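Case study 2.
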Amino acid sequence: MPNSWQLLTDDPQERAVFRDLAATMSLPNEPAAPPNRLRHVLRVDACGRRYYLKTFRATQWKNRLHFRTSAPRAADDAERELRVTELLRARGHGAPRPVAYGRDGAASYYLCAELAGEPLRDRIERGDVDAALLRRVAERCGRLLADGFALVDLSVDHVFVDGDALAVLDLHNAGVRRRRGADRKLLRRVLRRFARSVRGLPVSRAAAMRFAAHLLRAAEAPRPLRRSLITAAQPFGTAARYEQGDRSRVYAERNPQRAAQERALLARVWPGRDGETVLDAPCGAGRLLPFLQERGHRAAQLDGAFAMLQQTANTGARAGLCVQGDALQLPFADDAVDGVVMFRFLHHLPPDAARQAIAEACRVARRFVVVSFFHPCSVHHARRRLAQLTGAPATRFALSLGAVRAAAARHGFRLERSAAQLPFARDLWVAAFVAT
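Prediction:
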């Protein structure tokens, strides 16, 4: 394919400086974000201003098909970003000003001017946000979705704040729908993307749920859909609900026969040694405390709900340490304990959050990590997937043994043994990993 370079600016200085791709690439630049397999972004300083050059090394076949069959039509990732940006700006929404678009063989290029202001992430990191700003961002993003823009990559990194003005960027995966409003799939994806972008930031669960509610309302989602999406929202944990009424007691007393069966499954893979310190995170109502102490372990308990920690006193065993905290951000130093167990937890998390939980367990554990998870190849999981196809919210998530093993291997742990409650019928599996 012949090279091409189309200038989109009327500014004479910009047209001279960015006259072609070679001239643009020769300007002083530095990486603006970590590159991935198909894309990298350069920060370019010129004309007394700052610009961003996005390079897409190739457009995947599925994207080419999607861009040809959905609006706005485009031949590649760079042109898709350009067309979405043009539509946003034409409708009065904030987005980066396009400067140039080009092709060089399979690669495509998009050059845009820097947005004024700063990403919402920076404001959150330094504590310079309030409820009014978060509501304004949520409502603006919701209105964009209601206006027919399928902005699947919305996040606190991609929303820029400049005084009262808001703008969005990173639009190559976006599109425009033929009808107003957003469907369940799009709204769920947007909420999850926002959730991933605030992990590790000082955002409370209450603030996150309010943000989601404002966004869904502004997106004109029907009330039943809003309710189901909020109910299914997983990124900020479910610990708060156990602080209400006597839910922690009910949880502690439910189905003791099943709990005994699950402890027996855990015993089949248990790698712990007498005298080792083991962190149970999250510990729930102390369901594993007797199991750990029977094996001679010094037990530490962590849970996000204080009411759950209080229930551990009713187990008849005494924990050496009880800590209220987040299992996705364990408040412990590296190699703080001999082992970490995460039992009946990962299936509550979307896959990316589950991998983060495994990473935290591997960071804190010196010698071993044990996790339970729901396997996707099971009758139970198939039933849940069928229910989701008919509109039920996703409240349980599955990971294959290979995916769990890969997540642990990235942090220096190898699989020692695994076991399933009833392979391919029931979905509960356990796996033990030891440090390499």
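The chain has a mean pLDDT of 89.
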